[in-house]
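Pasting two entries for a bug report.
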Amino acid sequence: MRVCVLGGGVIGVTTAYALAREGHEVTLVERHADVARETSHANGGQLSYRYVAPLADPSVLARLPHMLMARESALRVVPRLDVHQWRWCAAFLRACTRARSRRTTAELLALGFLSQRLMHEIVARESFDFDYVRNGKLVVYRDSASFESARRQADYQATLGCEQHALDGAACVALEPALAHIGKEIVGGIHTPGEEAADCDRFARGLALAAKRDGAHLELGTEFTGLRTKGLRVLAAQTSAGDLEADAFVVCLGFRSQPMLAALGVSVPVYPLKGYSLTLPRANAHGAPRVSVTDAHHKIVYAPLGERLRIAGMVDLTGMSTHADDDRIALLTREARETFPEAGDFSALQAWTGMRPATPDGKPLIGATHFRNLWLNTGHGALGFSLALGSAQLLADLLAQRELAIDGDAFAPSR
């Protein structure tokens, strides 16, 4: 089958790789000169297969006034005169129930476990380096209420097959000595030894070359402008290189999926959550963490990537603009410096911003549309890297109409 994959982020690349390995004639269309130039380029770096609890949770409701009013809130909402934003927010609030959050967590865990298994297969099969490490993850808490809530979540996830350990503050510092500077502020932490970290950009570029080796054609530097349709069938992708015909088309365009699909009358609840990251080029081995660390209070993650340290955080629901907010970058820098003051030369930090394509319930959209040959693999929010391989496999299984490894209905665009 001829398959055209639209979008060269980590979701598009893993989709192209999975389909090429099955013998399909795959063409990947990406407007940049290389893959992973936008949201996938400098993300948090943590492969959080077990930290998949959705943002839509009852605890968010109590924080809404702070999110709307405080400039330095880790989760920030700026209302716009934008119907799409308001519809997304309304659907998000409807998803903030304990029952839906737990059900979504279970469904995302299944996709996460599948993704991790496939990652291990790729590490064994492919030879490219992407700073992959199985170093575990430690989430630290600075107040007792949050820590107790995390313990309850860990207890629930244990029933779903997750190995996690609750640690007191002293044990957190013993596990990761670089936390000593804030040791007195840490009331406890949740340690997940099975979590991993890697460079998403290097992974996507290496996997794109592997897909090319397996027969995929990479249309890089090619602008996608729309889809030519007839009835309920897509005939071709319209691009700056001409029309590309195929038997099936897979949309992996991140937050840009929504306006493109809207032009075809396909409504998808995807909205960008802007995030920021900093990269410390040469991290101090004694002052930077070697375990992946998440500061739950500030919503900041720290992932060692070889000699570098990736620092990422913030959730801005502020519109479609990709413009970087200098104040948010300054806030992220200040909080990183206060947490790991001896991590390295903070004057050398490299800043980045990306638009995470999120759905209100926190689950990606994977599956068919009402067009007979148009498929979606988009809406992964902050979990794109973690869920990419499982999502690609699920899409490939759906396209082949074979038995699924997990519940496909949980991620169906029509749900």
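Entry 2 (this is the one that rendered wrong in the viewer):
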Amino acid sequence: MRVETARVFFGIAAALATPWGADWHRTRPASTVLFVGLYGAYGIAPYVGEGRAWSAWAAAVLVAVGSVLFLRIPGASAFGFSLSFPLTTGPGRATRRAGMALVSFAVLMGLWTAGGRTKVLSAEFVLSDRVSVFLSALLLAVFGGGALASLATASVRAEVDALPPGQERDRALDFMSGSRTIGLLERGLLFAFIGAGQPEAAALVLAAKSLARVPTNDHGKHASEYFLIGTLASVIASLAMGMAARSAVGLPTF
């Protein structure tokens, strides 16, 4: 990837990701569109004389507007100006359809902007055996590992459900409530580091999880058992899939 292409790509991606991560699409629509427009313009600044750069910028702005229309919640601040149908900012199916249409059009515009490079990269991505192996192994580790973790912790969950209503049951359930999302991220990171041949970095993921999420005495023994069994299941799935993927493509396991 040339530096020029990289600047435009990362600039547009950052312009879209920043307000998305801050959840501005739902609560601050005007700030979302303004930020995407300004930072996107910064990303293409050296190439304002090229039509494809402006096409990429326009696609990003359309994605921002479409996301605002599709995700905006009732009661959030308005754009700061009036929009007539079908680009209404009120709740309803028409708004969501308009948002989806804008995002779809922006995706098509982005594909046109990339031109022949998209076809080449897409062909390489689809036909690459290594990409296919690692992508499939990632899905197996993240989602298959989730099924393994759920199966392994089923007995603990059954014990918690059987507890009488009270603080012990409530605290255990509270601890387990966010486990699914955390488990997905955990297995994804573990697989990424193991697949990259960096098991030391994978160990840091476990250390960070232990510091941030380790159950205390207040959560009870069921939460501790759930944490330990779930973590071990995630490690086994990620380690097995990471090593299998590396071995399948001819890389040393470690």
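Dev reply: Rendering is fixed now. As a check, the viewer should reflect this: Residues 75-91 have pLDDT under 50 and may be disordered.
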